[in-house]
């Protein structure tokens, strides 16, 4: 395993192996980021449906330095969906690799689309299930932008590390 400060990336020879030469554990590796993305999505749902009250919401209680910052809400939305998109992207890339399929730009767009739909669903649920929160188009836009930037980042980084035979 290649070790870099703050990153643990698999060796390229292991990543580029055919699915026939992969062990069963390698073929199931995609399930780890998939489970993490499900857990993160549930955390996001819980946090976004949490009543804000006088304290300003869960995120502002956890990160008080965001209080008073212009567009802090949009930054939080973009960040939450960026993390979700990152987890989904890694799960999808590892799944494609385990099946011996090439990773395509259309699959990356599906990750962004899934995050955008989930963000829209959360916005809709906020307007129906909470008293102190409501749906905002700018929040949905921030969700999609955060997911898109995360996928773009990993696509660029991944094109160098995941798909190159040189390291």
UniProtKB/TrEMBL annotation:
Protein name: VanZ-like domain-containing protein
Membrane-spanning ranges: 74-93, 105-125, 137-154
Keyword tags: Membrane, Transmembrane, Transmembrane helix
């Amino acid at each position: 395993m290649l070790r870099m400060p703050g990153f643990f990336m698999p060796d390229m020879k292991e990543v580029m192996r055919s699915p026939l030469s992969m062990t069963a554990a390698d073929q199931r590796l995609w399930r780890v980021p998939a489970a993490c993305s499900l857990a993160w999505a549930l955390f996001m749902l819980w946090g976004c449906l949490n009543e804000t009250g006088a304290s300003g919401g869960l995120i502002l209680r956890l990160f008080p330095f965001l209080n008073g910052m212009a567009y802090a809400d949009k930054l939080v939305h973009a960040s939450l969906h960026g993390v979700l998109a990152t987890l989904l992207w890694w799960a999808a890339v590892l799944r494609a690799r385990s099946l011996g399929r090439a990773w395509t730009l259309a699959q990356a767009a599906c990750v962004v689309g899934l995050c955008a739909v989930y963000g829209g669903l959360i916005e809709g649920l906020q307007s129906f299930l909470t008293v102190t929160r409501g749906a905002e188009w700018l929040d949905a836009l921030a969700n999609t932008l955060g997911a898109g930037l995360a996928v773009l980042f990993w696509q660029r980084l991944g094109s160098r590390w995941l798909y190159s035979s040189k390291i």
